[in-house]
Amino acid sequence: MTTSPALEARGLYKVFGKNARHVVERLRAGESRADVSDQGTAAVIDASFSVQKGEIFVIMGLSGSGKSTIIRMLNGLYEATAGSVTVSGESVTDTTPTKLRELRRDRVSMVFQHFALLPHRSVADNVAYPLQLRGVPRAERLAKAEEILALVGLEGWGDKLPSALSGGMQQRVGIARALAADPDVLLMDEAFSALDPLIRREMQEQLLDLQQKLQKTIVFITHDLNEAMLLGDRIAVMRDGRIVQIGTPEDILTDPANDYVEQFVQDVDRARVLTAANVMERARAVVPENAGPRTALRQMRDAYSAAAYVVGRDRTLLGVVSDRDAIKLVRAGENSIASVIKRVPQSVREDEVLINLFVPAVESPLPLAVVDDRGRLTGVIPRVTLLAALGPGPGATGEITIPVLPVPGAEIDEVLAQLPHDEARSSDTEEVV
Predict the structure, then answer these.
(1) According to DSSP H, which parts of 45-196 are helical?
(2) CB–CB of 133/97 below 8 Å?
(3) What is the pTM of this model?
(4) Considering only CA atoms, which of 394, 389, 296 is closest in space to residue 338?
(5) Which among 199, 235, 205, 209 is positioned nearest to 115, based on CA atoms?
(6) What is the DSSP secondary-structure string of 272-304?
(7) Contact 237, 244 (CB under 8 A)
(8) What is the full DSSP assignment across 244-270?
(9) 88: Cβ–Cβ under 8 A, 6 or more apart, which residues?
């Protein structure tokens, strides 16, 4: 069942100038931004997107691309020249001034690049200000402010003036003030751009931590691609007033829509964007827990592997069996691998970013096992695949040489050859699909 979006924009235009409506008609007829510059400035051209509840939707682009204009249209600070914006089905672009004020007060909050704190009010009073506008009694709103301050890591700072806080702390106050009203939608316009790099990274991580707890719907504006890739569930890339691509960070990085997006992403740190699920391969050397050693050896031989992963009937990863141990079982006349299943050296979650896989990959003698949130084996990542994933991006001319894996030791073939012909060909247990 599909749910209605928390926020939706359809066919948005914003033109600054006296002939704005006529400029929109010319743009719809196919003229470019430059063509209409004699009659007005086309800041946003035919922008459409929707944001789902609990999603961080990032709008990014270079200066002048129209991203900050869009976010001001989402809460009515700028009147749309054409098109529509709705928040939970309620119109922003076609409503009365009174309804618009109510929407900004109760439903949509905004965090600005420059903190916009009231310098003469305490930190707690700044955070409580939206509640004051609602008429909430002072004791109740200050109690709520202290609760939100603790949430953003500023417990005990409520009685200080903003001037006593660092830039990063002041921005936390700005976020706390936006959260105090418990809005449906949080708009963040270049919220971390004025901060030093280390503080900026800390604030990005803090926002992700808050999102885990609060699951707010967030529209985040940035010109920094790495920030967009870190924060965004989906990203809209803008150029010259138009949205040129919308997709997940992986979509934008691995399948850019045009040359502009491709050039934009070429210097991105792929290791911090791509996840294990993006690069994993199908696990070939896999046997069920009730398999016999002969089946395990055949799987290893066919997969050119010195070991096989062992899974339960629901594909839960249980462990690993080596070729040496399986050979010993065959020679001892055993029909089950249960006694030699060992703990998996390393496994990683599907959503783990590649930057966190290098140490496990080095420490593991086997390809990294990738599991889902229920512990089921979904794939493996050989070291060479991990390295190849960080190679040249789309359109690059560089090549990666993948070494040829050695054929498993002749001992496996020798053991299997000694079995009766029918036994060597038949499986001593069910195959893993």
Answers:
(1) 67-74, 97-106, 123-133, 138-151, 167-180
(2) no
(3) 0.75
(4) 296
(5) 199
(6) GT-BHHHH-B---SEEETT--HHHHHHHHHHHT
(7) yes
(8) EEEE-HHHHHHS-SSHHHHHHHTTS-G
(9) 4, 6, 7, 107, 184
Q: Please answer whether residues 242 and 315 qualify as being in contact, where contact means their C-beta atoms are separated by less than 8 angstroms.
A: no
Q: What separation in angstroms does the CA of 70 have from each of 32, 66, 393?
A: 19, 6, 30
Would you mind telling me the total number of residues written for the chain in this entry? Answer: 433
- Would you state the structure tokens that stand for residue 328, as one six-digit string? 């010993």
**3-state class (DSSP) for residue 117:** coil
Q: Give how far the C-alpha of residue 170 lies from the chain's centroid of Cα atoms, to the nearest Å.
A: 26
Contact partners, residue 143, CB within 8 Å, separation at least 6: none
| CA-based torsion, 72, 76, 80, 84: positive or negative | positive
Spell out the per-residue pLDDT of the chain, length 433, in tens: 457 899 999 999 999 988 899 999 999 999 999 999 999 999 999 999 999 999 999 999 888 899 999 999 999 999 999 999 999 888 999 989 999 988 888 889 988 877 778 889 999 999 999 998 888 999 999 999 999 999 888 988 999 999 998 888 888 898 999 898 889 899 999 888 878 888 888 888 888 888 988 899 999 999 888 889 889 999 999 999 999 999 999 889 888 999 989 888 887 778 878 889 989 999 889 999 999 999 999 989 888 888 999 999 899 999 999 999 999 999 998 999 999 999 988 899 998 888 889 888 888 878 899 999 899 999 999 888 888 877 655 444 333 333 334 445 556 666 666 655 444 444 443 333 3
Burial of 226 (0-12, 13-18, 19+ CB in 10 A): middle
